[in-house]
Amino acid sequence: IALSSINSIKAATYQVNDTGDGAGSTTVRTLRYCITQANTNPGADIITFDGLGGGTHTITLTSALPTITGQVSIQGYTATSAVQGPLGPSSSRSIRIQINGNDLTDPLFAFGTGSDGSSISGLAIYNAKNICIFVPADINGLHIWGNYLGLLANGTVGATPADTRLEASAIFIGSTAGARTVSNLIIGTNGDGGSNGGLNDA
Q1: 83-94, pLDDT tens digit by residue?
Q2: What torsion do the CA atoms of 161, 164, 168, 171 make, to the nearest 10 degrees?
Q3: pTM for this one?
């Protein structure tokens, strides 16, 4: 019984293998499905994208994703041929997962109570009328790194700039409903994942 209890709180890895935005299933694992599953599992979970195959993949949202309520690491750089790397003229960065906000008027990613220790990386998030990444709760530990916000996966605006623009804050920390405490927060543009404690992620 004791071993069963220990196993039940182990971390799980959820592999996105479908770019749709439906509820998903154990065989059709959308990003929405994987976040929902991670929320119900008490462990520190990981969401990967290596099940999508090669090339650049776009997930077009039809509504805001579920609020994240457990510790989870959303790892866009696990996509096939994605490469971490800093910004700059000689950058080797290669993002392969695009999140099209589809002009939604709700925040796209929200880290709520219980999401302490989470991270989100390796995504190109664009075309949003509201916040891309929203942190409205008291949180201890959140790492937002190596993403493009308001740009396509290749680091550029779309052929029609209005299709990639952000009409609100890319990242919003806090809440108008009252004071919030967020500690151990790292936000950066570099793609090294804070390998030296986050010093390159400024």
Answers
A1: 998 776 667 889
A2: -130
A3: 0.88
